[in-house]
Each structure stands twice: as C-alpha cells, then as structure tokens.
Amino acid sequence: MDGFLLVDKAGDMTSHDVVAIARKNLNTKKVGHAGTLDPMATGVLVLGVGIATRLLPYITDGKKAYEATISLGSSTHTDDKEGDVTFRASNELISSITDQKITEEISRFKGLIKQKPSSVSAIKIDGKSAHARVRAGEAIDIPERDVEIEQIEVKQIRHLSDAIEVDISVICMAGTYIRAIARDLGSALKSGGHLTFLRRTLVSPFLLDQCQVINEAKLIPISEVIDKIFTIRRIEATEKQEILFGRTIDQNSISGVVAALDENDNFVALLENKLQGSAMVAAPILVNTSSQQSGVK
C-alpha cells in the first residue's frame, strides 16, 4: 500500500494524531507527514503511506502558504493563543498604532530575513524537541536562522478595545514560523503580539481544495502526483530490471533528481546522475521494490 493522503487537518489535533488515525484506517504503520502543523492550526497536511514516506522530504522542503490572524496588544510564552500571557500593552499604546504603521512593519518581513524560531517548536536540540524542553522547565535559546518569505500581505485590520487583529496571507519557504512573525511584529510595534488563527492553504504542490478531513481522505497513487514533484523519466522493462537490482542505467537528460516510471505508470525509482569512472550514469537513490508487483502504482 503506497501513496499520499491529502488531509485538511482539524483544529485541536496534533499532526501525530492525524497520522495515528491514518495508520488505523489503513491498517499500516508506515505512515508519515510532510511538515508539522500546530494543534491550533488547520489546513493542508500531506501524509505519505508506504514507499511514499520516503518522498516526503522533497515535499517538506518546498513552498507553503498560510492565512493567519495576529493579535497585537499582548504576548504569550508560545507566541500563540494557547500560551500564557507574558506581556500586555496599555490601551493608550494600542490606540496609537495606525494601520499604516502595521502595514509598513509587515512589509519588512518580505524576502530573505533572519528569524528566531519560537522556543515552543518542534526543532530538535540535542535530540529532544524545543517544546519538550520548555515543558520540562528548561530555559532554551534557539539561534536565528535564514528564512525566505516570498509574499506577505495584510488582508484586514480590526481595532478592538484592548487589541488589534491583523489578518495576513503568507507564502514562504520551509522553515518559516508564522508564530514568530506575530511575535516579531508585536516586538517592532512594542505592543506584543501572538497568533490567534492559522490555516495552511498550500504545501507545494498540494492545495487546500484537494484535501479532505482525515476520515474521508482517499489514498492517491504515487503515479498520479509524482509529476508535480519531479521530472518524469519513462523507462523500458530492461532498465527497470537493472534498477531493481540496484544497478545504474544511461544518464538522465537533466541534472537533479528524476522519477522513473515504467510502461504501466508504476513508480520505480528516483534517479540522479553521478560520475562512475569516466562515464556519467543515472544511479537509483530510492527504489520502489513493490513496483515489481502488477498494478502497484
């Protein structure tokens, strides 16, 4: 059993909860996901089943899109609404923040920027997640790192009596924390800020309208979506046999990782050119041994 599940994750569920349900529904332990979503977040969660779990890193590293709401006026220890309030701005300060100032500060996040991940994150520190260390009472300091935000737009601003709600849309590369944008916007405005809503609408190449709730999501064969992730190479039966024995075949026509499909559209392998002696050949870097079975896609 190999393929992808495109899930619209509900709120108040961990990504692991979704994986556990998929394992039970499909009666297999070989299920993983492409990029964690916080429990409060909803939206696109791509699950890989069987050999497709080995393809998930290529999806995880891609582009993502989000719709989010930031609350200005207070900070929390998790940088979202689930955390304890650690700072609250005065109503006078909140009322002095204009829409123009918010928009100007938001625009500074576009491009290649330095971002410090939230201390309550899935980032591993010496083998243990940051959020687990924080829960255990440890004081941690995660260093800044480069992230790329392709697009960030203010959709709506609402001025409340003790807060300002800012709806934004974000297109970014892997590793960007939307919670950190909320925190850093609040810091720039000296008001404090945290995330109150987050919905992921894209895990490239998969869009939200392709997703279903976990118990309604259907297994999609690898062959139906592989061309959206990799360049496709059609191989002959003799080449397939060579690959299944772990041998190289004639080089790919392009550089980078290529997906090999047989004459029946079965996913056979990922291939990448490498120098073997003085000759350039296509070497298998992942082989789908189940493609030997008839009808396995």
TrEMBL record:
Tell me which EC number(s) this protein carries: 5.4.99.25
Q: List the keywords (alphabetical).
A: Isomerase, tRNA processing
Gene Ontology terms describing biological process: mRNA pseudouridine synthesis; tRNA modification
Entry GO MF terms: RNA binding; tRNA pseudouridine(55) synthase activity
What range(s) does the Pseudouridine synthase II N-terminal domain occupy?
Answer: 23-178
Q: Per its UniProt record, what CDD domains does this chain match?
A: PseudoU_synth_EcTruB (cd02573)
Matching entries from SUPFAM superfamilies are given as: Pseudouridine synthase
Q: Which Gene3D superfamilies match?
A: Pseudouridine synthase, PUA domain
What protein am I looking at?
A: tRNA pseudouridine(55) synthase
**Which source organism does the UniProt entry give?**
freshwater metagenome
